[in-house]
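queue> pop job 88
queue> type: inverse folding (structure -> sequence)
queue> payload:
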């Protein structure tokens, strides 16, 4: 490993390119209660905080301690201070839990925009805090921010230097290029930070089909398109490709010996699991796998690159026998091999959002410090793996 080591942290897993990493392990994902005792099923805020900061916290909290509610430095912050270019790419809102854990600190994950601060009174600008997740993400001057969540950035800042402006306008004052579609992303030039807002909320999924149902569904083939996804929406692989190009160009322009730190999240694998939507879930997994292909192709030409792929937490979906009659929701799919496959969702009452599980999840890696993922580790150990790869202290 050399000082130009790049860390690409890719959150959520499965698929062909994901399956071919040379080193594979498993890690535990539990959160904690305010007193530090285990909370065995985590949400994405606590789990993301665990690997982003090395500190476990309570469910719902973003990069703050469990008991005292104090901000804890994230991997992105010292990486930026040490000269690395930084990026955050997602198919969720940019203010959602997993992207938020790297570039913000709030008491509750719901505090996404200036109008959403009800659960974070001490984090408001009026109280001397850092503001909402959206405000913090642009104030951190993350070099590349690509995802959904335009509705959060359209909210107006309520206090401080940018009072009366939307967060998008604040970003522009801070030098950001703001883009909203594939053409805009393609035309972006290096030299200034980029804020890409490709949907009002979450970026629409790529595949569609019938959701799981009580008693199952008739066998269905997933539709590999979505009429509600605008043609101008960049894919996760498009965003990953452009992010890597921009981050690498920034370092070359300033003749830096440092590399870059980038998180890429396939967020709606989780969201469609909550919704018991197997086609949406599988389509987003395929889209995520194509983004992993982009990251691994870069690493093949830059062997000092660490690429990690993992998940925030376990989830509800399971493949069960065709003859099974599970008590929850299920759907029978017809695969590319012409076979039938039954997927079951039974971690909550039908009609309610399906829940995470406390199981260990897969982690896989290649490159500098990748051996650290072997065996069974704790989610917080990923913080150390990436910190060591970047030589951050």
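queue> result:
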């Amino acid at each position: 490993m050399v000082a130009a080591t790049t860390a690409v942290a890719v959150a959520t897993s499965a698929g062909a390119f994901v399956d071919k990493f040379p080193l594979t392990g498993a890690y535990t994902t539990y959160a904690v209660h305010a007193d530090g005792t285990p909370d065995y099923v985590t949400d994405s805020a606590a789990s993301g905080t665990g690997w982003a900061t090395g500190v476990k916290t309570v469910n719902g909290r973003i990069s703050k301690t469990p008991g005292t509610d104090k901000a804890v430095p994230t991997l992105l912050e010292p990486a930026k201070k040490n000269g690395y270019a930084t990026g955050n790419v997602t198919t969720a809102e940019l203010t959602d839990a997993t992207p938020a854990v790297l570039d913000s600190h709030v008491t509750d994950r719901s505090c996404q925009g200036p109008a959403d601060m009800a659960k974070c009174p001490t984090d408001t600008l009026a109280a001397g805090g850092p503001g909402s997740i959206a405000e913090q993400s642009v104030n951190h001057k993350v070099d590349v921010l690509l995802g959904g969540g335009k509705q959060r950035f359209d909210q107006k800042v309520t206090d401080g230097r940018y009072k009366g402006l939307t967060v998008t306008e604040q970003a522009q004052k801070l030098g950001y290029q703001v883009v909203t579609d594939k053409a805009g992303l393609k035309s972006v030039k290096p030299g200034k930070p980029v804020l890409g807002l490709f949907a009002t909320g979450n970026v629409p999924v790529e595949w569609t089909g019938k959701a799981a149902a009580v008693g199952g569904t008739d066998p269905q083939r997933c539709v590999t398109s979505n009429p509600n996804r605008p043609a101008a929406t960049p894919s996760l692989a498009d965003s990953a490709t452009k992010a890597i190009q921009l981050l690498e160009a920034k370092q070359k322009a300033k003749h830096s010996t440092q590399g870059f730190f980038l998180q890429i999240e396939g967020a709606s694998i989780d969201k469609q699991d909550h919704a018991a939507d197997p086609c949406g879930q599988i389509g987003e997994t395929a889209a995520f796998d194509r983004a992993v292909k982009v990251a691994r192709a870069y690493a093949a030409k830059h062997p000092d690159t660490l690429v990690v792929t993992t998940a925030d937490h376990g989830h509800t979906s399971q493949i069960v026998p065709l003859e099974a009659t599970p008590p929850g929701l299920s759907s029978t799919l017809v695969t590319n091999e012409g076979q039938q496959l039954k997927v079951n969702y039974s971690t909550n009452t039908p009609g309610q959002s399906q829940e995470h599980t406390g199981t260990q999840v897969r982690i896989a890696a290649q490159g500098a410090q990748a051996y650290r993922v072997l065996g069974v580790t704790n989610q917080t150990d990923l913080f150390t793996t990436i910190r060591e790869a970047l030589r951050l202290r």
